[in-house]
Every structure is written in C-alpha cells, then in structure tokens.
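Continuing the series of single-chain predictions for the mutant panel. This is the parent chain; the variants come on the following pages.
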Amino acid sequence: MISRKIKRLKPIEWLAIGVSLILIVLIGIKAWQLTGKGNNKLKEPVSNSPLDIVFGSDSAQLTLYAYISYHCGYCRLFFTDVYPELEKEFIASGKVRLVLKLVEHSNNQDRLNEVKTAVCINRYGYYGKLHELLVTNSSVIYTDEFRDMVNHFIESDPLVAECILGNESMDYILQIRNEFDKFGFTGTPTFVIEGRVFRGYMPFEQFKSIIIKHLNR
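Parent structure:
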C-alpha cells in the first residue's frame, strides 16, 4: 500500500494564495467596469434640485452626476486628483458641468448638519472654501470649531438659517438617499453620465475618454 503525504502549506504560502485571489477578483471587477458591462443604463432620469451643488455652466453640453461623500476616501481622491483636470479641460470651457449629490445614510447629527450646511451655503453663499475644507479634513465636522462656524452662518444670513434649520435641506438629504437606493447604487463614488452608471473611482483619462465619446455624438 502506497502512502501519500499531503503537503501542508506554510502560513506565508496561504497568505500569498489569498492575496492572489483578491487581485484576480479586483482585476475582474475592473475589467467588467471598463468593458461597460458593469455600467448599466438607468430607467429613470436623475433628479435635479436647487440644492444640488453644481460646478460649471447650466448650458454645458454634458452633465456628469456624482453621488459622493466627503467621508469616502476614493471620493476625496476624485476631488484632489481628477476634478482639477476635469475643471481645466472640460468644465471651465463650458463643455461639462459636474452636479454633486451628497449621499448621507447615517442619522448622525454632525453628518446631517455637514450636508445641510454644504447645500445651503452653496445655494446662498460662496461654497468654494467650505468644499476645500471638507475635502482636506472631513473629520472637522465633529469639532466645536465647525459647529461654531455653522452657527455663525445661521446667525449671519436669514436665508442660510431658514435653509439649514427648516425642512428643505433635510427633505433634500432624504430625497438623495432614496434615489441612491432606488437606483440600486451600493457605494460612493457613483457617477451617472447620459443615464449610464459608472461605479467607483476612475482616473482622469477614463473620464476623458467617456466624455469625449458623448461630446462627439
């Protein structure tokens, strides 16, 4: 009778196998996304609201919707690495406008106040500095300094106060939350271009290819 011994893998070998499997899965997901098979077409149009944060001209040829959160690492990477190139090549020239849909699923008061403040300041004031602050340090919303800043906005401008303290901004948060879920989105960032969904972070060159394709139609 021949006895065969089964070789036991060392922990480092199991680790290597695990890493390889993860890489294969990630490559497969990215390939699925790049071929367009993961980018389904929405059956309904994306909503538009006066509280949407818009970068670019309303008369732009193409609208890029971004379901996004300042507490998402890949969203912040989009703002720091991709948005400047988009702004320079497509937004400043009036070809593209970017519409932010701030997604907030938690009921944490600081997180809700962050979105309320963002959309209300964008509508009634200058949003650029607040946007830069949230991209650079999203955890600032949990500090007394940020809460004091929000209170200052409320005390200084009755329109901002009504927007933040009234029902309008909270209704907007719930609208985006419900829309995000209705469309079957599962994470941020998620982009919608001409009704087609692009899930996850994409480098500028990929955005450029998609945008040029639509602009040339």
